[in-house]
């Protein structure tokens, strides 16, 4: 026990006590300065960071405006689609999560990695990166079941555009698809994964129908679980629009064009509204809104029938004999054509070494203007062409709206071509040949027009000479773009000749004759290739498809003060009358049938749509 | 064994006891908030604060038990305790339980026991015993002799591996040595040698330890990885601003952005909810508490008691320095808890017992005059 009672005489070391007493205030000073720095000096910044930790903002999709036909039938709607998103910040291990997604959904891992790599640069912090835009229900269930094991995976409900009539309106409505880099760059209202109008009206009136996204504030915990939500800004639904298109008419025409390539335009000559605009073959815009696979896209693009092409506005063809209406107008306008003056058609005309043939081998005999239009006499117009010369014709055709865009408000419209001396010199470095005046006169050669341009020209013939902007939306007021240089008398003369083309026993459009309707029309047959002699003698159906002529029929019909213009163009359809005539006849029968106007008139009843209202 | 003298009760250092009790209650209150986390439908509280209270009661009885026995008996028990500890540390290598890759625990059937904790006390007592005999400031020979004693258990603990406890042992012993005083030559040499040895130490660290130090130097380099703790802790503390967000209102902790919030980062929760004002008061309480231990060291009747108190001082001092330093982003992340504030059963028991030891020294400071 000696140790126990051992008493050390020494005093507690003074320096040691001093050391301890210095350490305590040292500790206090060090930490209080640091605390002041963090909590008072930088406190505001850290408070902001804590708030950002806890609050996230999320956009709330605004429903895209609905689209109806002129009678109020819904044609484009939104429906929910389930997308799989990944929030990087909540993800423990992105690589492993991607592997899990590949396993759970059966998607190739390489494709997921590629999607991730492509999008990760653009995605904002805590914004979900969309891995799979459209999940089927069974995959959805598999993901839901495994959701807890893979934090960071998020199932998002997003609106998906649905076109109720698939391919029927595809060329008019266009489609929506995921916005690309360029669009994201340009438009701050878009964020990664948003759909945006890519074609057709969806693209042209994007701003009107997109609406404005709302903002939702989420309070989350560290694993991204939502604890509370506050709607900061309400989403604003896009504007609903009504087309000028009549769905019944459109669908009837599409049925006739099934299996063919061609375009039909039906317009109201007084308002410029387009009642039908069909281009065949078509495609299904729904495929785009869910994301087209590269193979699907390749197949659509390389389809020899070019279904993506809107033939009514993007394809331009030689107008064939339809152009004779322009020639006649030009002649009357220039005063170089006396309607009573007649020409003797022997079936051909010689110019230098070339012989220019009339389509009827035997010739038409003595023909004046009306008969020349009714029977579509080539020789008459050859002579007229020689008399007018390319410059007059070119100037007049341009004044009638050819060679320029109609401004219908669809993307990628083509202006076509009206040749002139200057144009040829510039284009080919060659002088205009006299013989080309003859080709021009019957709508062959360099002249290229779109079906819509022809329809607009016909409208001007009927409505007092006004070139109207073709409208696809029912609420657009008529817009006069220009006046064609033809007076009432001249226009009346041409109209009469067109009516005679239907009514006359010799008329080339006689097959359109319908009891009770006043119908006027002009046929056209546009040569695709200069036919060799061996092909010339073959019957239409014996000629190989790609060598057959394009068939045109442009006309109008009138009854009880209502009138419509319709133009049909069937690629490789053979003769205008037989190839395109039946379409026009069906159109006129349809628009004057009992049921056509029995539906609620535009601007009334269900057309104004009660759903999706003041949202 | 001397009988318990009734007069001893009157000499109990009540200030120290009350400060400790106050700190402990602050800790329990803070734990109540720190163990809560918000769900969709309100706040759910894990029962850490209840467990901590129970451990506190156990600690209190341990403390009382320790106070009953005159601390001078420890002088005779010092070496046996030391060797038992070393024996246990060796046993850990063969029979220890491995949790999380480190072999630190001995299973005692009902509870897991960490010999590393015992090593701290043993070294503290042996250190006090050895230093009390030193008549002069330590020269090199004596310094290495005493450090050598500490190095045996410290080395064994580091091998487990438990770098934190190993360092603690050396730091406590080092603090006691400084308290005793060293010759001027030793001090000068040490001042020059330590900066040279630090880079050498770098090579002894594990990869994760290096990462912690690197991310301490630049937390933003890896905000979701190793730097996450530091960043979130600073955000929690800083966002408390002057007056704090209020009890149970800390978003960083309630939404679990703050990691380890009931153990190593508990004081960050406190800082977030009570702000600068509250944290300064807590810091003040710790300083007063440390100061009371210093008075005990000053007034102790014998040098052994004085060194014991100094050892306990350093035991608490280093933990406070390292833990708060880490939470405030002044030190790398090291798994050292804050006494009385962090949750931990055996740590609470240890803390109470060590305060009991100091109280023991304090209440017997007048006995010798009569004895």
Write a structural description.
The complex is a heterodimer of chains A (615) and B (371). Chain A is of the alpha+beta class. Chain A has 2 domains: 57-242, Penicillin-binding protein 2a (Domain 2) (Alpha-Beta Complex); 247-284 and 310-582 and 589-598, Beta-lactamase (3-Layer(aba) Sandwich). In chain A, the strands form 7 sheets. In chain A, strands 2, 3, 4, 5 and 10 form a 5-stranded mixed β-sheet that branches. A 5-stranded antiparallel β-sheet of chain A has the order 12-11-21-20-19, sandwiched between helices. Chain A has a 3-stranded antiparallel β-sheet with strand order 1-8-9. In chain A, helix 11 runs antiparallel to helix 22 (576-591). With 371 residues, chain B is mainly alpha-helical. In chain B, the strands form 2 sheets. Chain B has a 3-stranded antiparallel β-sheet, with helices on one face. A two-stranded antiparallel ribbon of chain B has the order 1-2. In chain B, strand 1 and strand 2 form a beta hairpin. In chain B, helix 2 (14-34) packs antiparallel against helix 12 and helix 3 (48-68) runs parallel beside helix 14 (345-363). The interface between A and B is large, with 50 and 64 residues.
Strand content of chain B: 5-15%
What is the ordering of alpha helices and beta strands of chain B? HHEEHHEEEHHHHHHHHHHH
Mean pLDDT of chain A: 86
Structural class given helices, strands, pairing of chain B? Answer: mainly alpha
pLDDT average of chain B, as an integer? 83
Distance between the termini of chain B: 13 Å
Strand order of the largest sheet of chain B: 3-4-5
Quick one: overall form of chain A? elongated
Number of alpha- plus pi-helical segments of chain B? 15
| Distance linking N and C termini of chain A | 94 Å
């Amino acid at each position: 026990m000696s140790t126990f009672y051992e008493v050390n005489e020494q005093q507690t070391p003074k320096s040691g006590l001093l050391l301890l007493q210095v350490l305590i205030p040292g500790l206090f000073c060090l930490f209080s300065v640091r605390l002041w720095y963090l909590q008072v000096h930088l406190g505001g910044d850290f408070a902001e960071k804590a708030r950002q930790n806890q609050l996230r903002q999320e956009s709330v999709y605004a429903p895209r405006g609905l689209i109806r036909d002129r009678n109020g039938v819904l044609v484009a709607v939104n429906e929910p689609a389930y997308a799989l998103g990944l929030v990087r910040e909540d993800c423990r291990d992105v690589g492993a999560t991607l592997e899990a997604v590949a396993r759970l959904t059966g998607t190739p891992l390489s494709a997921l990695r590629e999607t991730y790599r492509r999008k990760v640069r653009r995605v904002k912090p805590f914004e979900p990166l969309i891995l799979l835009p459209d999940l089927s229900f069974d995959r959805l269930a598999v993901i839901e079941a495994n959701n807890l094991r893979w934090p960071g995976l998020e199932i998002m409900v997003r609106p998906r555009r649905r076109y109720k009539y698939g391919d029927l309106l595809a060329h008019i409505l266009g489609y929506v698809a995921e916005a690309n880099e360029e669009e994201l760059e340009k438009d701050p209202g878009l964020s990664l994964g948003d759909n945006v109008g890519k074609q057709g009206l969806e693209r042209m009136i994007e701003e009107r129908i997109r609406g404005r996204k709302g903002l939702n504030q989420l309070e989350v915990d560290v694993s991204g679980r939502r604890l509370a939500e506050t709607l900061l800004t309400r989403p604003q639904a896009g504007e609903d629009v009504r087309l000028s298109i009549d769905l019944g008419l459109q669908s009837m025409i599409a049925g006739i064009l099934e299996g063919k390539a061609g375009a039909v335009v039906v317009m109201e000559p007084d308002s410029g509204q387009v009642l039908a605009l069909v281009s065949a073959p078509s495609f299904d815009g729904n495929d785009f809104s869910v994301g087209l696979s590269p193979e699907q896209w390749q197949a659509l693009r390389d389809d020899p029938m070019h279904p993506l092409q809107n033939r009514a506005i993007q394809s331009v063809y030689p107008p064939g004999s339809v152009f004779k209406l322009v020639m006649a107008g030009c002649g009357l306008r220039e005063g170089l054509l006396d309607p009573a003056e007649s020409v003797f058609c022997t079936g051909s005309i010689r110019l230098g070494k070339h012989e220019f043939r009339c389509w009827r081998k035997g010739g038409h005999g003595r023909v004046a203007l009306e008969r020349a239009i009714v029977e579509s006499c080539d020789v008459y117009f050859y002579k007229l062409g020689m008399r007018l010369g390319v410059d007059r014709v070119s100037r007049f055709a341009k004044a009638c709206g050819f060679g320029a865009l109609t401004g219908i408000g669809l993307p990628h419209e083509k202006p076509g071509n009206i040749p002139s001396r200057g144009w040829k010199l510039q284009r080919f470095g060659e002088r205009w040949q006299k013989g080309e005046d003859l080709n021009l006169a019957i709508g062959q050669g360099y002249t290229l027009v779109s079906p819509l341009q022809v329809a607009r020209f016909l409208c001007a013939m009927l409505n007092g000479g006004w070139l109207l902007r073709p409208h696809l939306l029912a609420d657009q007021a008529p817009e006069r773009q220009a006046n064609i240089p033809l007076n009432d008398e001249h226009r009346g003369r041409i109209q009469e000749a067109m009516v005679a083309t239907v009514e006359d026993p010799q008329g080339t459009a006689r097959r359109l004759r319908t009891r009770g309707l006043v119908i006027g029309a002009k046929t056209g047959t546009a040569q695709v290739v200069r036919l060799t002699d061996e092909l010339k003698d073959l019957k239409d159906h014996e000629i190989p498809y790609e060598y057959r002529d394009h068939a045109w029929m442009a006309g109008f019909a009138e009854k009880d003060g209502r009138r419509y213009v319709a133009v049909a163009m069937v690629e490789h359809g053979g003769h205008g009358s037989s190839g395109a005539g039946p379409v026009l006849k069906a159109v006129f029968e349809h628009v004057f049938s009992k049921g056509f106007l029995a539906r609620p008139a535009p601007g009334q009843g269900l057309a104004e749509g009660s759903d999706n209202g003041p949202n | 064994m001397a009988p318990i003298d009734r007069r001893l009760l009157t000499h109990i250092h009540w200030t120290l006891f009350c400060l400790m009790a106050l700190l402990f209650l602050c800790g329990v209150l803070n734990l109540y908030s720190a163990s809560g986390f918000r769900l969709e439908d309100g706040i759910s509280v894990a029962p850490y604060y209840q467990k901590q209270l129970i451990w506190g009661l156990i600690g209190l009885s341990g403390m009382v038990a320790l106070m009953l026995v005159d601390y001078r008996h420890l002088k005779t028990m010092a070496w046996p305790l030391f060797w038992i500890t070393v024996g246990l540390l060796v046993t850990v290598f063969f029979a220890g339980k491995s949790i999380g890759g480190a072999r630190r625990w001995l299973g005692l059937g009902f509870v897991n026991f960490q010999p590393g904790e015992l090593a701290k006390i043993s070294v503290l007592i042996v250190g006090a015993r050895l230093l009390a005999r030193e008549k002069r400031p330590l020269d090199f020979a004596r310094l290495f002799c005493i450090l050598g004693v500490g190095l045996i258990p410290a080395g064994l603990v580091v091998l487990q591996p438990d770098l934190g406890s190993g360092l603690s042992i050396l730091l406590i012993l080092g603090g006691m040595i400084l308290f005793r005083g060293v010759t001027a030559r030793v001090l000068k040499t040490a001042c020059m040698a330590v900066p040279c040895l630090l880079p050498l130490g770098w090579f002894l660290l594990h990869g994760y330890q290096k990462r912690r130090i690197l991310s301490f130097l630049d937390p933003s380099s890896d905000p979701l990885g190793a730097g996450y703790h530091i960043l979130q802790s600073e955000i929690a503390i800083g966002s408390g601003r002057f007056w704090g967000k209020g009890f149970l209102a800390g978003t960083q902790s309630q939404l679990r952005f703050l990691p380890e919030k009931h153990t190593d980062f508990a004081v960050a929760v406190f800082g977030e909810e009570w702000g600068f004002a509250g944290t300064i008061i807590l810091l003040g309480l710790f300083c007063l508490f440390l100061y009371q231990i210093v008075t005990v060291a000053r007034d102790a009747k014998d040098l052994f008691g004085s060194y014991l108190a100094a050892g306990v001082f350093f035991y608490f001092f280093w933990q406070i320095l390292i833990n708060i330093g880490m939470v405030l982003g002044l030190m790398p992340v090291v798994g050292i808890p804050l006494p009385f504030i962090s949750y931990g059963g055996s740590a609470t028991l240890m803390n109470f017992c060590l305060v009991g030891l100091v109280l023991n020294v304090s209440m017997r400071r007048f006995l010798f005059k009569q004895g």
